[in-house]
Each structure stands twice: as structure tokens, then as C-alpha cells.
């Protein structure tokens, strides 16, 4: 039986780390509550130079002038040589504005960096010039594959995305800046329309790797949106538990991280509507713990299941107990207050709950 890669980790504490650039200005303090769209830091745009050849006789003309806005990949100038048989294109490396055209270079200033919280939660740590950590509670869905940076946006729950008519009906201007959520197999044409209409991210049950590679080859660059495939490449159905969670998020803010190969797996995070209603202990099935007191003091293991009600321990105390699978394979009940979290890795090699983004 295939491993269920997208089982939901419910009501967990999730930590998102926003990495900052040197010289950035922090806009929030530790303990502040933030929403997904809350600005948490700002910076100054950096200067980039595109070097030009010493001989300018072959230029057919600059395509941009000082003051023009430019996007990464746009043509700035064209040089012809060898009697017109050779052609060299000079392209813009970043989104920004042309500041000046010098004898040997074009000067471009990228847009001033800014950071949004990305998800509702509490600022739990601030390190100036380095990072801001935000802690939130909600449901975490590990993905099978993905790409792209961490983004947040309103969930746009669509119908099927595997027939041309269904794709054209579901994807239009309304998905701009949204996280498109498909509960089915998704065809390659959906990638094209999601890019055309400016979707922030696409989350789908499954996807053809051949169609994904073909789209990347045609566009000639990385995906313009973040992507998370929850089940597998191919035509796999979505896990029923995941479907239940995603069907309830229409219009709600979602946080999507495409992951980093060899470091962290892609994830979809569904923030809780009210953080006070969710547990804040950080315990969830699969996190690694050490027992601090009692008969199993000093033993290591992982949380097997969370408490549903107050129980009576062997010593007669009424506490919230947690089922812990010890390193020897045995499962025991331990009071939650006697557990120290030693790691936040997800079960079966899934991504870490601590996500670094920029």
C-alpha cells in the first residue's frame, strides 16, 4: 500500500521564520499579533548593473530608458555583430526601475524589499537584520512535491482541473493573488492559466510530471507561482482527511511553502480561526520528545496521539496524558507536562515544522 503522504496534522503549533536582509527595518515587536497581510519588515532596494561591451557600434537601440519599470527577463538592449549574423541580447536580472544608462553599464534598482507575515499568528522572536519568527496554530498538510517560495493568500477552491472546459471555467482573473486549490488530478493547461492570471500558488492532488516539465520548458524559467502536489505525480486521488480540511477553507487564508530540495518538504498550512481555541503546547503526532519525570524519565520517543480528555495516571493524578511511542517500540501514557520537545520533524521523513522563507 502506498504511504499516505498528505495526512493532516491537526491543531499543531507551527513556526515560520522570515529571513531578512541586512539593513532591513523591523516593523513588529515580540508578542505582537499579526495577520497574513501584516507588514513585518521593510528594506531598501539594491542596485544592480548590467555590463555592456566596450564597442557600442552594433547596438540596434536600447529597449529601455531611465525611469522605465522593468521585469526580470525583459530585454534591455540588443547587439548585432558579424555583419548581422550574430545577435546578443542583454536582459534585466530583477524587477525594478532603470536608474541610469552609463557608457559601460545600465543601472537598475530593484523594488524595495518588504516582508509580510504570511499567516496569522504571534511574533515569537525577532533578530534584527536576520529573521523574524511567527508562531501560529492550525492544520498542517505535508506535500509530496513542490517548488517556489512561501506565500499566503485567500483560498480559491475550484472544481475539476482536468478537462479544458473545467479549467477555462475555473481559472480567470478572479484567481489573481489567490491560492488555487484543486481536489483532483490537475492537467497541464491549468498551469498555463494559473500563470497567466497571476495566481500566488497552486495546490493539487496530483499532476503529470511530463506536463509540468513541458510547461517549464515552454516558459523558459521557474514557475511564476508556488506549487504543492499533495499525493504524487500521476493521477492519484486525494486523501479523504485532507479533502475534508480543504473543502472547508474556501475564502480562508492559506499558507503554502513549495519547500527546498534536500532540506524541507513542501507544506500547506491552514491557520486556525482563533489561536486561543487551539492547543499551544507544540505537541502533535510525530514530534520527537524526551520524558522528564516518572517511570519513563530520560526515555526518548515520539508522540503517538494527543489527549482527548482528562485521564487518571497510575499515581492517581488527573491530567492530560499523551500516548508516546518509545524508541524500543512500546507505547506508554505520559503526562503532557512531563514531556520536552526535542524535534519538530514530521513523521516518515516529512518536512520540518520550522520553515525558513524570505
In short:
The chain has helices at 164-170, 188-196, 209-219, 240-247; strands at 9-19, 25-26, 33-34, 39-42, 47-51, 59-62, 69-70, 75-81, 86-91, 96-101, 105-110, 114-116, 121-127, 131-142, 145-147, 151-158, 179-186, 201-207, 226-233, 253-257, 267-271, 288-291, 300-305, 311-312, 318-319, 321-326, 331-335, 339-343, 354-357.
Structural notes for this entry:
- It is a single chain.
- The chain is mainly beta.
- The protein folds into three domains: 9-41 and 116-276, Glucose Oxidase, domain 1 (3-Layer(bba) Sandwich), CATH 3.50.30; 47-110, OB fold (Dihydrolipoamide Acetyltransferase, E2P) (Beta Barrel); 284-348, Roll (SH3 type barrels).
- The chain contains four helices and 29 strands.
- The strands form six sheets. Strands 1, 3, 13, 14, 15, 16, 17, 18, 19, 20, 21 and 29 form a twelve-stranded mixed beta sheet that branches. A five-stranded antiparallel beta sheet has the order 27-26-23-22-28, with no helix packed on it.
- A hairpin with a 5-residue loop joins strand 24 and strand 25 (318-319).
- The longest helix is centred in the middle third of the chain and has 11 residues, at 209-219.
- It is globular.
- It starts with 8 loop residues before the first strand and ends with a strand.
- Mean pLDDT is 78; it is low at 274-280 and 344-358.
Amino acid at each position: 500500500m502506498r504511504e499516505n503522504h498528505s495526512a493532516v496534522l491537526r491543531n499543531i503549533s507551527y513556526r515560520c521564520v522570515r529571513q531578512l536582509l541586512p539593513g532591513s527595518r523591523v516593523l513588529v515587536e515580540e508578542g505582537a499579533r499579526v495577520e497574513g497581510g501584516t507588514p513585518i519588515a521593510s528594506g531598501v532596494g539594491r542596485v544592480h548593473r548590467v555590463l555592456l561591451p566596450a564597442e557600442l557600434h552594433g547596438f540596434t537601440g536600447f529597449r529601455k530608458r531611465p525611469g522605465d519599470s522593468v521585469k526580470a527577463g525583459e530585454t534591455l538592449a540588443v547587439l548585432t555583430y558579424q555583419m548581422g549574423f550574430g545577435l546578443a541580447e542583454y536582459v534585466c536580472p530583477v524587477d525594478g526601475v532603470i536608474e541610469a544608462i552609463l557608457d559601460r553599464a545600465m543601472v537598475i534598482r530593484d523594488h524595495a524589499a518588504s516582508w509580510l507575515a504570511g499567516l496569522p499568528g504571534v511574533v515569537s522572536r525577532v533578530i534584527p537584520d536576520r529573521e523574524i519568527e511567527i508562531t501560529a496554530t492550525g492544520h498542517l498538510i505535508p506535500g509530496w512535491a513542490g517548488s517556489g517560495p512561501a506565500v499566503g493568500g485567500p483560498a480559491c477552491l475550484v472544481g475539476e482541473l482536468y478537462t479544458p472546459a473545467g479549467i477555462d471555467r475555473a481559472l480567470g482573473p478572479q484567481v489573481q493573488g489567490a491560492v488555487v486549490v484543486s481536489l483532483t488530478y490537475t492537467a497541464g493547461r491549468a498551469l498555463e492559466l494559473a500563470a497567466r492570471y497571476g495566481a500566488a500558488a497552486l495546490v493539487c492532488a496530483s499532476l503529470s510530471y511530463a506536463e509540468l516539465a513541458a510547461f517549464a520548458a515552454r516558459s523558459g524559467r521557474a514557475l511564476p507561482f508556488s506549487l504543492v502536489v499533495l499525493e504524487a505525480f500521476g493521477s492519484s486521488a486525494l486523501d479523504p482527511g485532507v479533502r475534508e480540511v480543504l473543502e472547508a477553507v474556501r475564502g480562508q487564508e492559506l499558507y503554502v511553502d513549495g519547500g527546498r530540495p534536500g532540506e524541507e518538504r513542501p507544506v500547506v498550512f491552514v491557520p486556525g480561526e482563533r489561536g486561543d481555541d487551539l492547543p499551544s503546547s507544540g505537541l502533535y503526532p510525530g514530534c520527537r520528545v524526551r520524558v522528564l519525570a516518572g517511570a519513563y524519565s530520560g526515555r526518548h520517543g515520539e508522540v503517538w496521539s494527543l489527549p482527548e480528555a482528562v485521564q487518571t495516571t497510575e499515581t492517581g493524578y488527573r491530567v492530560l496524558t499523551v500516548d508516546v511511542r518509545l524508541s524500543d517500540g512500546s507505547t506508554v501514557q505520559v503526562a503532557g507536562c512531563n514531556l520536552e520537545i526535542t524535534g519538530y520533524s514530521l513523521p516518515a521523513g516529512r518536512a520540518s515544522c520550522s520553515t525558513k522563507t524570505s
